[in-house]
Task: inverse folding
């Protein structure tokens, strides 16, 4: 099956893109890498009247420091590709976490075209960036006809494939606070073979300088579940606390989903003391 017929536009400014979005009564869709929207169109699960290609908008690519707003943060443009993060073509505010995650997203062909903004706007609960940004408590930069606004991580994703974006708004970038030199992180992803979406994700970040000891339980049916104070799982594995967090994330005990997420969470916690401070998992 092939996509239904559609019009195509390639604006060179954010304002032009937003104007085009406003003409379609919700049927015009922005696209960057197209690694999620393209397959959906081919399956006729999405049938936009117009595709608005964002790749020619220079302001959405690359990165900027924001010393006037937050001295220790980086803003990555929404059209920054997974490959650019993997290859170090943009600064890494996470001391290796984001390049590590990028290397394990799908295949290189997907990473060459897929973008961080596209992934975050698509908001698949099993995708990597939506879980990483929850772990890092990132902020989302959004622009629409009424101007620009900032959406905190807690307000970004309201459910599977559902975000705070209005139909005539676009995600322009994501603001990520820099981790300190003493920060540690771990990331465990369970998938059956390379290229598949995760069945379970667990991640930790510990930054004493910033007072952070946070964890995420991801690849669940809802938004990533953030454990704001994960110290009971870092200072020494607390099984009752872990069990309570998994159940709070909506995982029913004695189910397959509960077991794989429980293993992911424990292995991510164990990985904090590993030499490379990271770990990924695949089924044998």
Result:
């Amino acid at each position: 099956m092939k996509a239904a017929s559609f019009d195509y536009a390639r604006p060179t400014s954010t304002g032009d893109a937003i104007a085009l979005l406003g003409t379609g009564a919700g049927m015009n869709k922005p696209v960057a890498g197209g690694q999620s929207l393209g397959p959906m169109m081919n399956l006729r699960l999405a049938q936009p009247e117009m595709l608005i290609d964002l790749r020619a908008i220079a302001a959405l690519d690359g990165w900027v420091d924001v010393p006037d707003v937050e001295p220790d943060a980086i803003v990555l443009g929404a059209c920054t590709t997974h490959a650019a993060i993997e290859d170090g073509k943009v600064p890494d505010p996470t001391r290796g976490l984001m390049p590590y995650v990028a290397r394990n997203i799908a295949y290189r062909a997907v990473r060459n075209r897929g973008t961080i903004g596209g992934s975050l706007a698509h908001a698949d609960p099993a995708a990597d960036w939506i879980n990483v940004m929850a772990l890092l408590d990132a902020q989302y930069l959004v622009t629409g006809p009424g101007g620009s606004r900032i959406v905190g991580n807690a307000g970004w994703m309201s459910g599977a494939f559902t975000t705070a974006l209005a139909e005539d708004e676009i995600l322009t970038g994501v603001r990520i606070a820099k981790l300190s030199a003493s920060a540690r992180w771990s990331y465990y992803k369970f998938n059956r073979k390379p290229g598949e979406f995760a069945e379970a994700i667990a991640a930790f970040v510990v930054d004493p300088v910033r007072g952070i000891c946070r964890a995420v339980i991801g690849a669940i049916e809802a938004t990533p579940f953030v454990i704001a104070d994960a110290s009971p799982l870092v200072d020494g594995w607390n099984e009752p606390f872990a069990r309570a967090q998994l159940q709070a994330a909506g995982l029913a005990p004695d189910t397959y989903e509960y077991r794989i997420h429980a293993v992911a969470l424990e292995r991510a916690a164990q990985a904090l003391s590993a030499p490379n401070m990271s770990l990924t998992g695949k089924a044998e």
